[in-house]
Every structure is written in structure tokens, then in C-alpha cells.
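Why Transmembrane endonuclease/exonuclease/phosphatase? Reviewers of the renewal asked for a concrete example.
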Amino acid sequence: TAREVKIRSIVSRLRENSELRAYQVDSIAAVIEATRTPRIVCGDFNDTPVSYVYRRMAAGLDDAFSDCGSGYSYTYRGFFNMLRIDFVLTSPEFRAVVYEVPEVTFSDHLPVVVRLKRTPRK
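Here is what the prediction returned.
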């Protein structure tokens, strides 16, 4: 039998200005940290995995690419196809089992396709 799962949605467009984006991320991260239900955080962070924005958003969460991606991956066509700036992060109640970035031409960003498996709460 299927069990009902509550999902909380937070939608925000992160600013291009890095200082404003950091301020936004601090606010969003505070809500994510205060949420006790399972979490999936995904989107265009406009920053790389070594940035403050990524580290702040990913605190306490798992990166789907780190979980099951392989090799080198990029999600943004600009800058010589070198930047992974779109992410799927999950709380420990989920585990990424598939991570794909299909080559498409309709955007400067590539879609990130992740299949998640629900794991028992620890």
C-alpha cells in the first residue's frame, strides 16, 4: 500500500549577483535545515560545488552526482562545457540510484535526471 508523503515546496530564483545570491541562500538554507520532513532540493544554483552557495545549500544533504554519477559531468553549456551548476540534493531518506545529464539543445543548461529510492529513516 502506498503511504502518503508530505512534500514542502520552496521555489526561488537565485540572483546573478553573488552577494545577493549568498543572502538568498542563507534564508533558504535556514528553512531547509528547520524542515524535519524528507527533503529534495534541486535547481540552478548558478555556482559550482566549491562555492559558498553550494556548500550552504548542501549542508546535511547528499548530492545525487556524488551518490551515483560517474566521471566528469557538466550542466551548463557556457564556459567550455566545464561547469556543473545545476544540482539535486536529498536528505538521507532518499538515495540517488540513477544520475543522467541528457544532451539537449533547447537551453544553455542541460537537464539533470535523477531517479531516487526511498530509504528507511535512520
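The domain at 18-118 is CATH 3.60.10.10 (Deoxyribonuclease I; Chain A). This is the kind of structural detail the renewal will allow us to pursue systematically.
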